[in-house]
Amino acid sequence: MSIPRFTNPTRRSFLGGAAFGIGALAGFDLSEPAHAATGRVTDTVRLTWGLSGLNLIAKERGEFEKLLARDGIKVEWLGPFPNHAPTLQAVTGGSADFSFGGSTTPALAAIIAGSPLVFTQFVVYEPRTTAIIARDDSGINKVEDLVGKSVAVNRSGLGEFLLVAALEKHKVDRSKMTFVYLNPPDAAPALASGKVDAWSMWSPGVDIARLEYKAHDIFLEGRDLEFQIDYTSYLTTRKFATDNPALVRAVNDAFRAEGKWISANSKDAEYIAQKAGKYSDQVRDQFIALNRQYRYFAANDENFLAELQRAADWLVARKVLPEPIKVTDHLAQL
C-alpha cells in the first residue's frame, strides 16, 4: 500500500488553516491573588485544551477559573484539540487567545510561516517519555531496523524531531526510510493496521499504543536522547499580548499555580486525566508512578532562551524547521 506524502506548509496554507482549528475539532500559592486587573481590553480569555496535559487538568479541576475570577477574568475553554499546531492556527485565526501549552517546534514553524505569535511562558516537565515505538510483531527492535520502513510523525513537531535525532545518533540516513506526516488521531490507527511500521509520539498516546497494539520502544527520549530540543510553550498573538499585558500575566500565574498543584498531587491529577482520556487503569498507574514535575520559565529568562535558541538552530540545521529564527524577536513583552 502506498504511503501518503505531504508538501511543506506555506505561509498561505498555514494561515488559511486557522479557520479549521475550532470548527472542525469538537510555584504559586493558590491563595495568592493574580496581578491587578489593569492593562487589558477584555475580561474574557479563550483557552484551548486537549485530551491530556496540564490544560485538561486545569479545565476539569476548576481552580484555575476561580483564580482568574478574582481579577474579574472569565475563562472560555475551546477544544479538544489533538496537538499543538491546530491550537496555534486557532489563535492566529482569532478563534482562541492562547495555544494549549504544547511543543515549541510547531510554534517556531508557525512563526516562520508568518503567524504573528509570541511566547508568553515555557514549561519543562520531567520525566519525558516521548518515544519511537513499533509493534512487537514488526521485526523492528532498534533504530537501524527502520531502514526501508515508514514512521508516522507530526510535521515540525516533537515526533519528527525525535525521529531525526534518533536517526542521526544511530547513523541512519533519513533517505533510507519514509517519514509519514500524520496527526495523532490518524497515526494511531495507521500503526494498528500496519499502514506505517512505527510511530514517534508523546504521552499519553505512546503509552496507550504500547498496550493496545502490543508495541515496544525502539528509542525513548528520556533514556536515549542526551539533550532536550523541544519544550512546552504557551503562545498568543503579539497584538493580544500588547493590548492585554495584565491579563496575560494573570493567565501565566494561573497556569503556574496549576503546575504546582499537579506536581504535588500527581495521583489525583492522573485520575482526572484518565477520566477525560478514557484509557486503562494500567496506563493511569504508569503515569502515577512517573510522578511528573512541572517547572516554568518566564518569556524573558535569558538562560532558558539560550537553550531554546540552541534547539531552534539544531532543528534548522536538520531541516525540521525551514529557515533560521531568532527566538528573542518573538516574546511577549509583559
Automatic annotation (TrEMBL):
CDD domains named in the record: PBP2_NrtA_SsuA_CpmA_like
SMART domains in the cross-refs: PBPb
Annotated InterPro entries: Solute-binding_3/MltF_N, SsuA/THI5, TAT_signal
Matching Gene3D superfamilies: Periplasmic binding protein-like II
Domain Solute-binding protein family 3/N-terminal: 46-265
Family statement: Belongs to the bacterial solute-binding protein SsuA/TauA family.
PANTHER family on file: ALIPHATIC SULFONATES-BINDING PROTEIN-RELATED
UniProt-recorded name of the protein: NrtA/SsuA/CpmA family ABC transporter substrate-binding protein
Organism annotation: Bradyrhizobium brasilense
